[in-house]
Structure formats: structure tokens, C-alpha cells
Amino acid sequence: MRCLAIVLAAGLWAADTPSGWEIGPFARPPEGNPVIAPLRDTAFRNPVDGGTVRWESLHTFNPAAVVRGGKVYVLYRAEDDTGEMRIGLHTSRLGLAESVDGIHFTRRPEPVLYPANDSEKDREWPGGCEDPRIVESEDGTYVLTYTQWNRRKTDVGIATSRDLVHWTKHGPALGTVGKYGALSYKSAGIVTRLFGGRLVAARVGGKYWMYWGEGTVRLATSEDLIHWKPVEDARGEPVAVLAKRAGRFDSSFPEVGPPPVLTERGIVVIYNGKNAADGAYAAGEALFTADNPARLIARTDEPVLQPEMPWEKTGQYAAGTTFAEGLVWFGGRWLLYYGAADSLVGVAQVHDLRAGADWVAEYPTPTAREERAVTVNGVPEIWQLHWKSAPKPECGADDVETAVTCPCQGFGYGEAGDLELVRMRGRIAFDRLPLTPLFEESVSAGKPMAILQRWAAQVQDLEAAQQRDFTPTARKRPVVQLMHIADYNHDGNASEFYIQTEAVPCGKSYGVVVGVSKSNPRLHVFGTAAAPDKPLYLLKHEWEALRTATGPVDVLDWECEDHASEERVVVHLSWTSAGIEGQRRYYACTPDGKPGALVKEEPL
Fold first, then answer.
1. From CA 411, how far away is CA 399, in angstroms rounded?
2. Chain segment 434-448, per-residue pLDDT in tens
3. Containing structural domain, residue 560
4. Which of 78, 130, 280, 357 fits a 20 to 30 Å CA distance from 149?
């Protein structure tokens, strides 16, 4: 392999080190930790010998993490209660858990990756499958790096999956022959980039890159994310890009953490450092240039996460660990998942993001419009309508004649700006839905804007406006409540609300319903069962008819001769377990303005 011009970990850093490049430091959320702990009652039939084992009864730790379908999925290392009571002498398997908020998890009853009578048995039995890291490829395939341990040597194994449950093992990343076939090595993270809210494997110079190793961190490249070649120097030795530092938290050695992230400032590598003084593991960060993943340009002097809580310093590794292996961008913040004392899984979050995305750590803020308490699956939450910047007056806030016009029906006296819906637990935001794009007809300075009514406009205001003090009087009215939480899709959960997005000829207003549902636990705009990703716009009274109906219902959408209409339009609405269903039916109008024959029928 071609040689690289490198700056070694013990060598010189560039003089033009960028500032604010770190993803951390990280802080623990106020509640929820540890997020995964051992369970004594989950059993699994071991395919190697046919016996039944309590596969996650002893320890659960060292997790990988990925975002899929609006949820956080964690693959965690679980140790059974077989073998000697010493580190590394139990059998490890990988369990799978999912969460809608990144903190509260639901687990599968059986592991998803484990030793079996397959091609990898000799490398994985009896030690097991350990310490995963996961990335998503451009085509949606999930690529897992994990430690294969047979109690003689370790390898970095590669496995792939389309659904996180069914995995195909591909064997050691560096192959099984040649000088690397006999090497004992572990811990590997593939370089990623943030794309569409997910961390996706990134190419640098046309290749995928992987940082790997414990003791000294090294590099490898790949064309397919499965077969890897170490980056070597002129002597044919794998180059070292990160090494220990005397007197620091990584004075014993560094070890690769979660998949690194390619940013505008370079490649950020979160790694785990072992302290020679006390044996504790803490997480640090290193920055490599974006065009040369071997060139180190910055490194944190202090940990960005270290053992502090009692449960991070008691367990089978009493010296303490916050061993980071999973990193996701979720709900407007970075979440870092780590193993605590080789016994539990914890999570920490960034509290000062400087990575180019906006997020609000705590609410309310001066731009909080309204918030409501909502219970989702028995868990209390706070939902908030939030202006991303201070809104401006709109729809006659200072002009009564404008406020009561048709275009401002339901909006006057209003305010406008960039709007989002924020979901919180414990005042920590974990889910957000941009609402501004739903206001298709509202444009200011060439950009869509959301409009909300702040104070209710009344017809008698025209006459009252002759009074000199009318405007301040109107602004003393109660702020209009917009979030009326209800069950519009009849799934048994009151976890959605209607919001007006458009005003049409007088007395009518179109809008959408937003919230969460059993079929989609993330904030979303409701569509139909046939087109769930397309917002369903209905008149307000049509949404209300659906909400209160006990069965299929026909709702008048437009009457004959209403604003010279030559058709009568009726909306037929119903619901099934798949979602909302409906058609818009058009009837001809007779000369005397009565509805006639059905002309056509269109799906909503």
C-alpha cells in the first residue's frame, strides 16, 4: 500500500489548529442513567452446545448506537453467568434495544449476534462477540465492527445487516492470512459524516477509512466496508496515528471509541484513554485533517467524559470506566453511549454544540409560544411550539381592518416566523418537527413563514377600533391556545393536535394534524394510510368530524354555489389500523343549486 506523509501522535501538530472543533464535552442527562442494566430472567438457547443460558444476567456494557426510522437503536455487549468470575472469562453476546427519546429503552428478549456453529466459531467461542461499533452505508446497509474473542486472541470482526436483527458475518476485517491474519487486535471505528440526521460511512479520497487498535491507534482503508487494508509506512509497518501521553488521562494507552465523524474542521475521533496512575478509562477527542486521516492536528488535554458517578466506578472494573463506543445525532443533540465499569450502559449528551447545528438544551426560552403536558405510552412529556427566532407581527397585529379579512381568517391578530414543535422529557429536548414548511401559501422575503394567531380577532373590533386605545386593549386578551391534544387517528392515544396552515374563502381554514402515533413514535405530520409521508390538509371541521366519529363519516367540504362553485364536494373519512383513509367525492350541481350525480372520486 502507498505510503502516507503523516504526523505521528507523539509528533508535531499544525500551527493553524482550528478552534471549537470538539464535539464534547459531554454531560449526563438529569434522569434515566444507567439506560441498560443486566436482566436475570431472559434466557437463550446457545446454538453451540444446545444449553440454555441467562445471556444478559451478569453485565451489560460497551454499546454501539445508530439512528433508524426515528429511533435510537443500541447494540450492547451482554455477558452471561457462565465461566470464572474474571473479566473476559464469560461468554459475550450482542443485544438490541430501541428508544424514541434516546434514554428509555425497550429490549429484545434474545441476542442478535452471538457465537454459533458457523464460519466464525473458532474465533468467537467460548469468549464471544464483544464491543461493537456500527455505521450505516450509503445504501442503507448497517456495517458492524466487533471483537471476536476465543480466549486466545482477538480479531475485529465485520458483520452486515439490513434490519439490525439479522446479521451476516464476514470474518476478520484485516483478513485471515498474511502478517495481519495472526495479529491479535481489537476496537475499530469507521469514519462517518452527518447526512440527513444520520451518521453515514464517509469516503475520503475515494476510500473508506477505519481507525483501529488498542494501545496504539492505527489506520486502514477499504473499497467495500468489509475488506480492509492497514495503512503502512515505508518499512511496511502499520502507521501509528495516536499514542499514549505521559501524565495525561491517556498515559497508559488510547483505544478507539465510536465511529469518527468527518466535520468541516476535520475528522473528530472520540477515543478511550486508560490512565496509568489509577487504571481508569475516560473519553478524549482527537482531530485529524479531513484530506489526510493520518495527520493529527489537535487533541484534548482533559477528558470530555470520565467516571464520576458511583455506578461508573463500581462493578467488575472497579477502577472506573466511561468507555465510549456509540455516538448518534438525535433530537438536535449528540448522544454518546458508553460502558460503565464494564457492567452497565450509560448515556451522555453534548451541552455546548459547535458542530454547525442548532439545538436548544433547555426550555422554555423567550421564543417559546406555547407548551402542553402530553403523556405518550405512559411517559409524561412536555410539547412546545417554539419560534426559532423572535416572531414578527402578522395579519393585522396593528391593523384591525386587515385582521378581520378573509386571508387572515384564523390568523389575526398574529405573529409569523420560523416555527418548530419540540418534544421534551425532563426539560431535555429529544424530538423536533419543523412546522414552517407546512405553511405553503405564506411567504415573506421569498421564504416560507409560519403564522400563528396570538390574540383572537372579533368582527366587532372594526367598530371598537375607532377608540384610540384599542390596540393595547386587544393585546390584553388571553393568548390563543393552539395545542388541543386529542386522538384524531383513533389509535387509542391522545397524542396529536390540529394546526391551521392556510385561510381560504371566508369561514374556512385548512390545516394539518401533527403528533405521534403507534405506527410512528416520532413527531410527524399525519397523512393517509396510502400516503403516510404526504401531509393531509383538511378543513378544520373535517378534522373535528374525524376525531368525534364512531365510524366512517361523510363531511361537506364545499357546497353548491358557495363562491360560485358548480360542484358539491364531500369528504369521506374513516380509519383502520393502517391509518386514516378517505376520498373526496365530487357531485354535479343542478340548475337550482342542488347536488346531483356523482362526477368523480379522488383519494385524499
1. 13
2. 999 998 765 444 567
3. 538-604
4. 280
